[in-house]
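Quick one, T. Sequence first:
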Amino acid sequence: MLQRVTTIVDAIGKDVFCDSLSNFCEETVNAAEVALFYFPDNDNPSCLSTDVTVHEAVDEYVQGAYRRDTNLERLSSRLAGQNEFVIGSLHMKHINDPGYSKQFYKRTGVEKKLSVVARIDTGLVYGNFYRRPDQPDFYKQDMNKLQVIWQFCLGCFRQHVRFASISVPNFTDRHARLAVVRKLLHVEGLSEREADVTSRIVLGYSTTAIALDLNIAENTVSTLRRRAYEKLEICSQNQLFEICFRRINDVVRGIPDQHYERFLREGKISL
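Structure tokens:
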């Protein structure tokens, strides 16, 4: 999970961003196909990312068939007040327009759809995740999964819109990823060595691999891990992943962090 999250963050401002974002969501909800659209406030929609097998259907949709998409209309009408995004599911049998159902469901071989509509400053983002007839319907648990990750995804998308034309660092290699995760954990109050160990745990290193990489004993690795977990008030690797996920989410959404600001002032951490 964390590796996919860091891949999305790394892709902000780059051409691969929308594909990374849609693939992440598609895997999370176990969909067969995905189509991600952007509806500017004063312009025609465009397809940002898709792996739909019948490409003509996507072209026809953005060229005008979207006006017959009652699912989009229904979800968009629920975007009000504090709702940044709305999620809903749809089965082909509930579509009242036979021509639309044939054009975009029967022809493409899909039957169920889980959708999210989100408001950004310049328009709407519309994500659709499809399942085929041999797959189960989308249920409440699928909507909950999408709900959990979409706040993070929406924050990334907003940053991408802002920085699409700006060059960003490449964090695709192992050492760069390690440096990013280490910094996130150091901000949580860990010592330099504790951050060294826990960042490698997050990236999948075994105790032996950590010991070899840091040139320390395996017992020392275990001691540093225990101390770090005590400081973080956690007891499992999954909880460690959750802390990193939350930290990345906060950074992407621009939420100020008192520890980070204090560490910068004290010179304990650098940008």
